[in-house]
From TrEMBL:
Keywords carried by this UniProt record: ATP-binding, Ligase, Magnesium, Multifunctional enzyme, Nucleotide-binding, Nucleotidyltransferase, Transferase
Region of interest (Adenylyl removase), ranges: 1-439
HAMAP family with a match to the protein in the record: GlnE
Gene3D superfamilies hit by this protein: 1.20.120.1510, Beta Polymerase, domain 2, Nucleotidyltransferases domain 2
Similarity remark: Belongs to the GlnE family.
Region called Adenylyl transferase, residue ranges: 439-961
Membrane-spanning intervals of the chain: none
Function per UniProt: Involved in the regulation of glutamine synthetase GlnA, a key enzyme in the process to assimilate ammonia. When cellular nitrogen levels are high, the C-terminal adenylyl transferase (AT) inactivates GlnA by covalent transfer of an adenylyl group from ATP to specific tyrosine residue of GlnA, thus reducing its activity. Conversely, when nitrogen levels are low, the N-terminal adenylyl removase (AR) activates GlnA by removing the adenylyl group by phosphorolysis, increasing its activity.
Pfam families per UniProt: GlnD_UR_UTase, GlnE
UniProt cofactor(s): Mg(2+)
Listed name of the protein: Bifunctional glutamine synthetase adenylyltransferase/adenylyl-removing enzyme
Amino acid sequence: MNDSTPPPTPPDDPVIVRALARFAPEVQSDAALRAKLARVATASDFAIAVLARQPDVLARLAADDGAAPPSAPVLDADNQADWPALLRRHRAAGSARLVWRDVLALDDVEATLAGSTALAEQCLQVALAALEADFAARHGVVRDGGGNVQRLVVFGLGKLGGGELNFSSDIDLVYAYAEDGQSDGARPLAAEAYFARLGQQLAKLLDEVTADGFCYRVDLRLRPFGNAGRVALSFAAMEQYFQREGRDWERYAWQKARPVAGDIAAGEGFLVALRPFIYRRYLDFGALDGLRTMKAAIAAEVARKDLADDIKRGPGGIREIEFLAQALQLIHGGRNAELRGRSLLRALHALCEANHLSAEARDLLVAAYLHLRRLENRLQMLRDAQVHALPDDASDRIRIATGLAYPDWPALRTELDAVRERVATEFDALLAPRRRKPDAGALTAYWQALPEGGDREALADAGYADPAAADTALRDFVRTPGVRDLSDGARARLDRVVPVLVQAAGAAIDSQLVLRRLLALLHNILRRASYLALLDEQPAALSRLVYAVVRSAFLAERVATLPLLLDELLDARVAGPLPERGDFAPQCAQALAHEDTEAALMVLNETRQALSFRIALATLDGRQHAQESARQLAWLADAVLGVVLQLALREMRRAHGDIAGARFGIVGYGSLGGEELGFGSDLDLVFLYDAPRVGEGGELQSEPAPAQAGRVRPLDAARWFARLAQKIVALLGTVTAAGRLYDIDVRLRPDGGKGLLVSTLASYDEYQHHRAWTWEHQALVRARFVAGDGSLGDAWRAIRSDTLGRPRGAAALREDVDAMRRRMRAELDRSDASGFDLKQGEGGLVDLEFLLQYLVLRDAAQAPSLLRPRDTPGLIDACAGAGALDDHAVAALHDAHGVLLAAGLECTLDRRRRWVVENDAVAAARAAVRAAVHAAGLVFDERRAAPREDTRAMRQLRDER
């Protein structure tokens, strides 16, 4: 669009001469005002007519260029006969102001669209308020069964709902009301009749053509069942309709819906309830089918009515930009609330921020949209007509081109054609992905001939070592009810997807295993058309699915169990940076918005699964080191524990009240504490509390909130926190449709399985100082406060530092550590001549952990810096800083830890035990760990151990046996 100021209009232009002749001499004698009127006259016969009929409007514009819109008219019982005229004059004045400010370059396109929207809303609200008062006088107000007043809700759809109404648009309205009932006046009406009449009167008041023209053309055809449907429906009837009858085009229409008059709050509440109809919970590439259908219908209309020059419906027009943005919103908006905006321009920016549009595509579409909308407005401003086609009249063409600062019509048309071509290219690209999928060749013919036909030689040619077994599996799959009962559209998608998957599986080393995994996944998604659509529409998702399934039994199992993880295959965040530590908690905390605990657990688990899936893909892709993945998995567990603690507290307070001044916390041990969690790892937890005492030997009891008095059962602190801990364990292990959150191990608590599930802080302190075994202090080295009251966490950290930092005899400590490690090795090491146990084998991860724990316990009294880190890399560096490891050992141990951890994560990703055939990297890692262990004077190998005196660890071993 040419944004320069239009050249001055020749003073003898007949259009200008005729226009200025309509104004009083004092107006014509004002040179500045005359110049402005000349420019407006070039662009709009309508505005000139309004200004001539309403001199007061021209006076206001002359004074301040219409800086503020005109005040709304007053409609009351005393001037009811004048309501139509007042509304029409007001709309005309407001519209003339918009023309004035647009033509004189005082407003940009967005301001004009917003002004058109605001003017329509104002007229609707004023008109409805007047009619409501009139209906209340005649029929009373509608009340539901509880006596609550019910009001009409007016939903604006289309560009009115989106806040981007064009200059001379009709307004798409749908009427609804919250609850059924009856009016309470002398002539009562049922709610449906009351609101239907009210809505009809509103449409008539705005739409009917009078001597003053019309106010707004009202279109009610977008309501449920169209013209055949009732004028106004209750929310319950609307929901039922969308559940049973809702069609794809209605999802697009209601995507922009907004309550614009009447009971706004009730309308917004209904739209929240309607959101699942509009936005699916998962990536919804099925929306493209609806888009293709609508596009085909519009293309047929364009051809039938010769609308190639229609800048709204024609190729590369406004509608294609709208459909493109809305389709991407529908596809991704179920997962990302930021994409659910009603404004098209804001949606384009949000889609770019979420990486669903490139910055180049966004800028192109934004510029094209503004270009087309400005031209559309000028076409309509000319005579206040709802037109979208380019004019045929030569004079009109010259006026439009001149008003938009083009030298002539061909210049305007050349730029417009270029803009539309760019839009059409972007729009076609959205609908084209299916054509880019690879051809599965003979496998397609084989698959489509099943279950009775088909030559399994196609499977042998595809690489299957046992084509007969693969053939049997595929025939059995085709015969399942899930496949037989598919709709024609879903079956067509399946027929495109399966051959590609079968071909990819055939290239795998264990093709039969991969095929079995893929068929299990397909079986679980057959009833979810959106998932088949995702795989059908997006070759990238299909490719990443095969990659994940081939490489990881863990991911294959997760996707088959929870198909929503397919979304992660296309989520733009998958290929981008992974969440930082502070990002996990806000994402998990979204589950707390659900008051129902079961629903909250479902959302929390879906979030956990999605995030761990993303971490797993990054690990498989080699986009981040195993150490980073293990740390992120621990951070994710921290966030989940924080949310579960809040859910458990919420339930406890409802049932038993709260304990004032009490504190509770969760300590993570093992791989959770050391921030080296694996995929599918359980969590080692210890629960602590601290509660003030009352009187001699007494303990505080829980008390209900005032609103709960008489409805809760108080408990003393010990039982209250015991139940809280039990509830946390139960919530973490609750099986939902998304699986369970984590398996929990609480055996590291004081006194182990014989001890209480939750300990007081004081008893924990006493135990650590007087009764804990050396191996329990070793475990404390990696322990971390992961959730709960911050001050309790500070107190626990002080206990940990005091416990680990006290002086110890090096010889006795070494004996205890050696004995415990040898015992573990004897019981748990699964190494043999053919392979190595990465965790428990000699020179493995546990040997490294024991070495570092020993050095911390030995030296922390003299080097408090050893008490800060919990993770293995941090502990290695801390030991180096304290002089317990030399530089060569530090570098070698860092490398060894990385190799062993990466190999272990690779095993867990493929659902294998952490056991590998030793290669050069693993051998070097083991040698580095062994050398450091021996350098510290430790002997973990029973064969190398000299006879030792009876140690505390050995005594414990005998006692337990």
